[in-house]
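Subgroup meeting minutes
Present: P.N., E.W., G.H.
Scribe: E.W.

1. P.N. recapped why we're keeping a running log of single-chain structure predictions: easier to compare across weeks, and new members can see raw inputs and outputs side by side.
2. G.H. added today's entry (497 aa).
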Amino acid sequence: MAVKKLDWAVSYTSASGKRLRNEYDTEARAREFAARQEIRAMELSLDVPSVVKLKPRRWEAGFQDHQGRWKTKRFATKDEANEFLNGQLRAVRTGTYVDPKYAAGMSVGALFESWIERVRSVGASGRRAATPKTVQGYEWLYTRMIKPYWEDYPLSNVTYEGVAEWTRKMIGVNGGVASADTRARATKQFSRMLDHAVAIKVLRINPAKDSVGGRDYVPSAGDHRESVYLTRPQLERLAAFAGTHELMIRFTGLTGLRWGEVTALTVEDLDLGSRPYVSVNKAYSEVKGKLILGSTKGHASRDVPLPASLVADLSRLVVGKGPGALLFPSAEGHAMRNSNFTRRYYQPARLLAAGCVARVQTALGVSESRRGLAVFGDSMLTAVLDFQQSSGLEIRPMVGKDMWLALAECVPDSRRQSMLDSARISLVLGDSDFRPPVFHDLRHTAVSLYLAVTKNVKHVQRIAGHKDATTTLNTYAELFEDDFYSAAAGLDKLIAS
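Output recorded in log:
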């Protein structure tokens, strides 16, 4: 292990006719090598070697790697050579040395194959194998976003500036610049792949990160869609529009199960005894068009209590079904697919349920809203009572079946069917419309309803199937907004005590 100055060079010709040069730290060593090459040149009729003194001087750092192989690198100054040598010696001693040739010899494409195999077997964190759906998501991001630009790049050519430039200009599936969310997810995955390269000692450091591990080029994911938290009456309204799937909607909105969990439930998962509950221990996921039955998202089973209002309906539902029968099957008796269910049943139901109050207001020619959503307030109540009186209907402070049918006769044909469909629900003073919820919002609804009746976050965590209470608090922090202000108001009560 040393740093030496290279002052002399020997130029000679190989047997193939290629001109070569060796460099040495002393003239004696250079002339010794030249003498051997001169004898060889005479035997093979080659050009006579020459010895020259180098200008400017160059410095060579040499050391043995962790496998005992001699490695050298040249520098313009002695200080640079010493700094490099000291760094390499520390890396060899601490076991962090990485041969640069490894990075030059592995492409990003080859790295992905190594990384995705690890994800399949033990997961990205090394704790648990990833689900097929998670693997599918990683493969999609690589194929669509990472592979077109990086596949043939040697890892030694990946730089922080290069990753930043790719992130800014990443092409999306529509041919334009990809969305901020897609670019953020693809860049995060690429960085994880490079972390894997560090772990398997192909790279010494992750070139996608700066000196403190940051990535300032990652775009903000933008505004995420706000969750919808239905009140209990709004949940009942949504369920009423779901037709044959009414019980499934109500069940999901009161238990908080995920789509894959609720569609995987079987009769034997129910206990409808004195303390009714449902056991959640499996879930469906759709991977490449196929439904795969596996573990839940958190890979842990849980029991979720059932409110009494569900028990009677569930008891009727399971009559005549075997223990292994699906609780909420498709019309053909198979596990339901999210896309089919949403298109055929849920999308029409959520749009009808979300705008009931606005439909009445439009028909009556009144407008009353709160935070941009139609609300059944005093102005609408006056219009409702006037319409009932003029139409010869029973005068009641509500919109019931008789009024829906009467309104259907007063609106254009294009809106008549929605009025007739609405006749299954009633609206009363204080009801309001809501933003159309996606199916996962039923899970959010269940959590919000539980938090409204109990402030025990640990109980809600168990029901939701979160890993810990911190996840519950972080996910649903906005639901504690009222507590934020009531806590301050409660301080005044301490005076009286």
